[in-house]
């Protein structure tokens, strides 16, 4: 494999990142929730920027924005690259937006340097991925890949009881009869993203080549006991829901450590009732978030933990309700594209490693449908979803040039 020397304009990408960060609700960091005024302004700005760079621009029914350079081989499927433009509340300016700014910059550079591609290339800004305003994630890519059919817009509402449909209408978006935003013309999808973890920084590596996006299981757990007086109830006669929950969570952690990487298991929320210092907790509710890149290992761990929880509850005379609230399957990335990214990294003299993504990304929805790849660059201290989110210009530039090179291979070379 021989790819021409790639020197994509880093300054152009950095300026676009800064300009996108300005579209934010007041407050710390960047807040750009789906279908809000700041979200709409960012999308309008992005469409104008894409058009000024000579791209064919369109916005689909849910608000995904595409900038295209049409290839000479029009019968071939589209090479798609990008990420999501929405943020969490008080997030950073790199998550999602970096992948968009890099995609636009890379395609503009390739068109200016090498002319018309063989295969059509598109930069996409997915309207939503985070689930920060509405209790639904991947609304943008989910409509493109067929995960959603649009009916969810009428039943899903935010904390102010505004439905997705109403919010879309306020942004000038209208659902139409027919297939909607779903696409079947995508030949490959490549996403560039900050790692949102500490692995690359700790390893002093420039590039992470994602081998799989972890599958995820979430549970809501309710442990029932007997609320009673803290001073008059002997220890041997208690049915303490909190003590039982604590034993369960310790067992969960120990089992996760024993299973080893890349499995992770987290309790992110715990509430004890009645929550009074001198009353034994009669009920505890907590959440579980469990992730692994291999479906069999993920299922085995979850089944084992549930059985362990039941044994603990029985031994303490407690009741147990465990309800599944989310189940996503692991998404392996394309082997051929992973090898290509390794070759590009070696050719550019960049240090790299393959790795599992514990966080979810739009790429996981494309993986079952077309060859899909993800590229990571380091995140300072692993911080993300925060105003303190940061990757250096040099780190961002490395990712941009690797992305540009793989897009050249996919769009400009005969297959």
Automatic annotation (TrEMBL):
Which keywords does this chain's UniProt record carry? Hydrolase
- One Pfam family matching this protein: Peptidase_M20
Q: Specify the enzyme's EC class, one word.
A: hydrolase
> InterPro entries recorded for this chain?
Amidase_Cbmase, Bact_exopeptidase_dim_dom, Peptidase_M20, Peptidase_M20_dimer
Instruction: Write out the GO MF terms.
Output: allantoate deiminase activity
Hydrolase recorded as keyword = yes
Recorded superkingdom: Bacteria
Annotated ranges, domain Peptidase M20 dimerisation? 215-313
E.C. no: 3.5.3.9
Keyword NAD found: no
Family listed: Belongs to the peptidase M20 family.
Q: Identify this protein by name.
A: Allantoate deiminase
From which source organism is this entry? Paenibacillus tianjinensis
Taxonomy of origin reads: Bacteria, Bacillati, Bacillota, Bacilli, Bacillales
The encoding gene is allC
């Amino acid at each position: 494999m021989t790819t021409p020397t790639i020197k994509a304009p880093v300054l152009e990408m950095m300026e676009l990142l800064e300009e996108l960060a300005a579209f934010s609700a007041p407050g710390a960091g960047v807040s750009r929730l789906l279908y809000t005024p700041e979200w709409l302004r960012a999308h309008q700005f992005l469409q104008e920027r894409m058009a000024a760079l000579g791209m064919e621009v369109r916005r689909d029914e849910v608000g995904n924005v595409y900038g295209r350079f049409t290839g000479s081989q029009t019968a071939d499927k589209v090479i798609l690259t990008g990420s999501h433009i929405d943020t969490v509340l008080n997030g950073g300016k790199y998550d999602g937006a970096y992948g968009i700014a890099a995609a636009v910059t890379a395609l503009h550079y390739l068109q200016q340097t090498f002319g018309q591609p063989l295969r059509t290339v598109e930069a996409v800004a997915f309207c939503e991925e985070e689930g920060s305003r509405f209790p639904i994630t991947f609304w943008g890519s989910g409509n493109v890949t067929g995960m959603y059919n649009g009916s969810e817009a009428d039943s899903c509402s935010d904390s102010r009881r505004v439905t997705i449909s109403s919010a879309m209408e306020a942004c000038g978006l209208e659902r139409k009869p027919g297939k909607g935003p779903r696409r079947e013309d995508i030949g490959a999808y490549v996403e560039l993203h900050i790692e949102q973890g500490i692995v690359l920084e700790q390893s002093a590596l420039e590039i992470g080549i994602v081998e799989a996006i972890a599958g995820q299981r979430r549970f809501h757990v309710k442990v029932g006991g007997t609320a009673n007086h803290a001073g008059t109830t002997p220890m041997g006669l208690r049915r303490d829901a909190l003590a039982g929950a604590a034993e369960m969570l310790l067992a969960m952690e120990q089992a996760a450590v024993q299973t080893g990487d890349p499995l992770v298991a987290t309790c992110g929320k715990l509430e004890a009732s009645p929550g009074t210092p001198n009353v034994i907790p009669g009920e505890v509710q907590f959440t579980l978030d469990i992730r692994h890149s291999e479906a069999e290992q993920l299922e085995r761990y979850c089944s084992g933990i549930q059985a362990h929880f039941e044994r603990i509850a029985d031994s303490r005379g407690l009741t147990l309700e465990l309800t599944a609230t989310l189940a996503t399957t692991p998404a392996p990335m394309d082997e051929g594209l992973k090898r290509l990214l390794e070759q590009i990294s070696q050719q550019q003299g960049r240090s790299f490693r393959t790795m599992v993504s514990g966080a979810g990304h739009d790429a996981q929805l494309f993986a079952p449908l077309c060859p899909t790849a993800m590229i990571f660059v380091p995140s300072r201290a692993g911080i993300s979803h925060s105003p303190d989110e940061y990757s250096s210009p040099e780190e961002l530039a490395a990712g941009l040039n690797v992305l540009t090179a793989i897009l050249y291979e996919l769009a400009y070379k005969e297959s």
